[in-house]
Design a protein that fits this description.
Blueprint (H helix, E strand, L loop, with lengths): L13 H10 L12 H37 L7 H38 L1
Helix pairs in contact: 1-2, 1-3, 2-3
Length: about 120
C-alpha cells in the first residue's frame, strides 16, 4: 500500500477506520465500476483489516498463554510482550465497541427521523 494513500489514517485504530472505509464504498463494490478513490479506499481497508487481524490473533494467543501460565503456577515468568499483546487486543476491542456505539446512534437517529415522517 502506498504511504501517500489519503484514506489510510490512524493506523492504530484499524477496526474503526476499517468500518468507516467500508461505508464509503458502493454496496456491491465487487461488481461495481470503481473510481481511483474507491480503489484507494479498498487499499486502505485491506491494510487496516490486516493490522486488525494481526492484533486479534496476537492478543488472543497472548491471553491464552497468560491463562495457561497462571493456571499451572509453576513459577514461569509473564513477559512484557504477552502483556503488551493482551493490552493491544483489549484496546482494539474497545475501539470496535466505540465504533459500534456510534453506528447504533446513527441508526437510532435515522429510525427516529423515519418515525417522524410516518
Amino acid at each position: 500500500m502506498s504511504s501517500a494513500n489519503p484514506f489510510f489514517i490512524n493506523g492504530e485504530r484499524a477496526p474503526y477506520e476499517l468500518c468507516d472505509l467500508l461505508e464509503k464504498l458502493p454496496a456491491r463494490f465487487e461488481s461495481a465500476k470503481l473510481t481511483s478513490d474507491d480503489l484507494q479506499v479498498l487499499d486502505a481497508a485491506d491494510a487496516h483489516a490486516a493490522n486488525y487481524n494481526h492484533a486479534l490473533i496476537d492478543g488472543i494467543d497472548a491471553i491464552g498463554r497468560l491463562l495457561f501460565i497462571a493456571s499451572t503456577n509453576t513459577g514461569d515468568e509473564v513477559n512484557s510482550d504477552l502483556i503488551s499483546k493482551t493490552g493491544h487486543l483489549l484496546s482494539a476491542m474497545a475501539v470496535q465497541a466505540q465504533y459500534l456505539g456510534e453506528l447504533q446512534s446513527s441508526i437510532r437517529f435515522t429510525l427516529s427521523k423515519q418515525g417522524d415522517r410516518a
